[in-house]
Amino acid sequence: MRLLLVWILNAIALLAVAYLFPGVQIQDWQAAAIAALVLGLVNAMIKPILVVLTFPVTILTLGLFLLVINALLFWAVAVLVPGFNVGGFGAAFVGALLYTVITWLLSMLIPDRRKVRLDR
């Protein structure tokens, strides 16, 4: 149930990014749902490999290169998912930042399972 709720909130976050920033376009809610699913899979499977491979560059840039990785993955998902378009690397950078912030804010709506168990 929690996974489904997170997926829906991530799709809502993508729709919010498209509404707030003209460099990111989403055709409809179905494209947002598919893009949110693919973004989640890419962040879970591919991002850790890229982080390990680019660790020296990340250290030299004091972690700022992770923002570039996020933007590239956001852009790659836009290339893969029909109905989800990003205007270029700059738009992907801003879109990824907005998506991260909005997702973080929306995740505050989901109760933490550990805290709920401690309260019982």
Question: How are the SSEs ordered, and which strands pair?
Answer:
Elements: H1 2-20, E1 24-26, H2 29-45, H3 47-53, H4 55-60, H5 65-80, E2 84-86, H6 89-107, H7 113-119
Antiparallel strand pairs: 1-2
Helix pairs in contact: 1-2, 1-6, 2-5, 5-6
User: If helices are DSSP runs of H or I spanning 4 or more residues, what is the number of helices?
Assistant: 7
Low-confidence stretches: none
Distance between the termini: 20 Å
Helix content: over 70%
- Provide mean pLDDT, rounded: 93
Strand order in the largest sheet: 1-2
Structural class: mainly alpha
Radius of gyration over all CA atoms, rounded: 15 Å
What spatial form do the alpha-carbon principal axes imply?
Answer: globular
The helix/strand order is HEHHHHEHH
Strand portion: 5-15%
Please tell me the total number of domains. 1
Report the major sheet. Answer: 2 strands, antiparallel
Query: Count of DSSP E strands?
Result: 2
Task: Walk me through the structure.
With 120 residues, this protein is mainly α. It has one domain. The chain is 76% helix and 5% strand. The protein is built from 7 helices and 2 strands; from the N terminus they run H-E-H-H-H-H-E-H-H. A two-stranded antiparallel ribbon has the order 1-2. The radius of gyration is 15 Å and the shape is globular.
